[in-house]
Amino acid sequence: MHLGLGELCSLLSALAWAVGVILYRQLGARLPPLQLNFLKNGLVLLMLLPAIVLLHGTTLPSFSALQIGLALASGAIGIGIADTLYFRALNELGAGRMGVLGNFYSPFVIVLGYLVLDERLSATQLGGFVLVSIGVLVAAWPKAAPGAKPAHLFRGLALGLLSVGLMAIAIVMVKRVLEAQPLLWVTGVRMVGALAGMVLVAALTRQLALLHPPTEAMPWRRLVLAAFVGQFLAMILWLAGYKYTQASVAAILNETASVFILVLAAFWLKEPLTRRGLAGVALTLTGVVVMLLP
Question: Does the pTM of the predicted model rise above 0.70?
């Protein structure tokens, strides 16, 4: 079994994101999605700045204008716009359906990687992709809830698919920049683009007031922990995965986040882990092993 740096980072990113989701689930009861997203991204940028200086010094890398533009656009599209659409779709569809819809992410990246980056998956990797996808679907497929259909199902599906598609476009467009430039610098520039994109979205939707911290008591400790683990670590590991392995492989391994969330929710939040959930976990882990076969 071959577990390279890129594959390891992709799996650890999924785990860190899953921890963040559990924390965000608890924070979501206190903060609106746009406000929560903007505050956590602002905290992440504050964490990135000293990390960049510590690891890379104050000397700016030789970014070309195109590379800076791609990194800024990737952040604005993949975090600023896509995350906003994702949260809106989440409100329309619920967590279960959005979890299933998120399974379209890796196929989008595989197609874009084929068209833009000239990447090809081996037969073994394709087999692993199928197993991971089936495992995530089995584990995350929502239970039937009679009479609980969302009011705007089709709009939610459209917004959800658009958000996932934009995330895929954003990571593929910055792949070559990641390969050529220091990881943390690219991450920092991307986060600046994300915050600028969110300000633009808030201005266009007349929600600029939501970008300020609330005046009432704020759960800062939990928010800082969620931002550090679920965004700072997760995003660096996520981008490192795309830097050190094929975008298609990284995207497939990122899908394991849904399974990590299921397992963490069972142990952390005491949510029941059903037989179907266990079967999904087993299929997903089998798919990961197949993906990593030499």
Answer: yes
